[in-house]
């Protein structure tokens, strides 16, 4: 089968489109014919060697949409021929991928492939961050950083679906401010001036919930505009910088600083994702949330997709097409 592999860490030039053997599923695993997959910031970190140690040759890619080709002998809830989204075991930049049965989710046959390919990471993550970790309530005000990206734009829509009172967002470049506005943000600011702007808009109270994937100074400034009893959920560090946070930032104000990793949840508590999968897939299928897709490439052009993401000039999700049509 065709796949994109890396045999060393480095820039986009280490991504090699080549032939490798097709994998075989174990007893509790599913073999999926990959139709589309997506590029995530974590893929770039893995390619550079910044996210654990890889066993070469390695295949990148965290999620996919495809058709079930084969199931292991102990698999009971997934059937051959089903259209599914999944979190693969060893990467999704390939014509076929393996996933544990617990990380495979059936989707309606008429669900749009591009929407499905864009949704696993951003939709599952956004739902967990807002509902389960952040505890969003209808009267809450919310700040969602990086609102023009895949997670940010999806979380904005979900916050609106959960009847958040006010939705603030930030972008790295105000030329991208139209994206979070389109998806339901009330106000959009730059990373440099959001804290004071939000305090002005909320009469000094601040916001009840903040979703932060940036880290560094953005995290520190976020605490300046987090209301008493508010929650800041930290789920990434795209800036590459460490935040300066102390116990004094949370103690007397009764605020909470929380961490969440979808990757850790996939490994340690996959049942939590099964619990929310039907709700998330229904929202996507009904069009109540629409994952923003900014760019699409063929699998063999993945290096170009990585370069685009590294420049931080993209908006929304970047999709890779593996098979144009189902056979």
UniProtKB/TrEMBL annotation:
Indicate the segments annotated as coiled coil, or none if absent.
Answer: none
Q: Which UniProt keywords apply?
A: NADP, Oxidoreductase
- Superkingdom, natural source: Bacteria
- Span of domain Enoyl reductase (ER): 10-320
Query: SMART domains this protein is in?
Result: PKS_ER
Q: Name one Pfam family in it.
A: ADH_zinc_N_2
InterPro entries in UniProt: ADH-like_N, ER, GroES-like_sf, NAD(P)-bd_dom_sf, Quin_OxRdtase/zeta-crystal_CS
**PANTHER family named among the record's database cross-references:** QUINONE OXIDOREDUCTASE PIG3-RELATED, QUINONE OXIDOREDUCTASE-RELATED
Protein name (Swiss-Prot/TrEMBL): Zinc-binding dehydrogenase
Q: Which organism is it from?
A: Alkalicoccobacillus plakortidis
Q: What is the lineage of its organism?
A: Bacteria, Bacillati, Bacillota, Bacilli, Bacillales
């Amino acid at each position: 089968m065709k796949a994109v592999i890396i045999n060393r860490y480095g820039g986009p030039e280490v991504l090699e489109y080549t032939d490798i053997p097709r994998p075989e599923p174990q007893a509790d695993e599913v073999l999926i014919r990959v139709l589309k997959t997506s590029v995530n910031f974590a893929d770039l970190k893995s390619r550079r060697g910044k996210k654990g140690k890889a066993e070469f040759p390695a295949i990148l890619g965290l999620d996919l949409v495809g058709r079930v080709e084969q199931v292991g002998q102990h698999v009971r809830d997934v059937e051959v021929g089903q259209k599914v989204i999944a979190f693969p075991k060893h990467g999704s930049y390939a014509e076929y991928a393996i996933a544990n049965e617990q990380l495979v989710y059936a989707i309606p046959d008429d669900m749009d492939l591009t929407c499905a390919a864009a949704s696993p990471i951003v939709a599952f993550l956004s739902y967990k961050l807002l509902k389960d970790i952040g505890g969003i309530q209808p009267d809450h005000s919310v700040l969602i950083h990086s609102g023009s990206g895949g997670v940010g734009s999806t979380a904005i829509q979900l916050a609106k679906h959960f009847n958040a009172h006010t939705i603030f967002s930030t972008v790295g470049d105000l030329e991208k401010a139209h994206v979070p506005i389109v998806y339901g943000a009330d106000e959009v600011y730059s990373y440099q001036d959001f804290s004071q702007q939000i305090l002005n808009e909320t009469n000094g109270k601040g916001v009840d919930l903040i979703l932060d994937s940036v880290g560094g100074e953005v995290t520190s400034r976020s605490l300046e505009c987090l209301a008493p009893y508010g929650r800041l959920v930290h789920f990434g560090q795209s800036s590459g910088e460490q935040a300066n946070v102390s116990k004094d930032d949370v103690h007397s104000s009764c605020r909470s600083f929380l961490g969440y990793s979808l990757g850790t949840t996939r490994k340690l508590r996959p049942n939590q994702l099964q619990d929310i999968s039907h709700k998330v897939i229904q929202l996507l299928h009904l069009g109540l949330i629409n994952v923003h897709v900014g760019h699409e490439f063929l699998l063999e052009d993945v290096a170009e997709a990585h370069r685009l993401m590294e420049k931080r000039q993209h908006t929304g999700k970047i999709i890779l097409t593996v098979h144009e049509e189902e056979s």
